[in-house]
Amino acid sequence: VILNILLNLYLIPTHGAFGAAIASLITQVITVIGQIILSIYLLKIKIPSPVIISTVSFLFLLIIAYYCTQNYIQTEWYFQFLILGIIGLIISFLTKMIDLKHFILILKKD
What is the helix (H) or strand (E) element at residue 49, kind and residue range? Predict the structure, then answer.
């Protein structure tokens, strides 16, 4: 809460509503990371290295895809959103976040 207030005090005067959104985003990301670390520590969860590498790779590539769609594809927002969704699906297959064989099995089921 304190971090959010401080970020709002700093960002809102210079960036307005966008600054408030960025402050909330930063606060939420830090909260999620803290809760994940706390859960892993308290519940003694072992996360395999390939899962961590796959997740970080997925997020990194998705951020790059977002940057590229925002800066190099000049069209309506909903079309950019659709393109980013398709790219995200492709990246999820490439990083093995979604198993292609299981995905096809799900699509084939009646």
Answer: helix 49-72
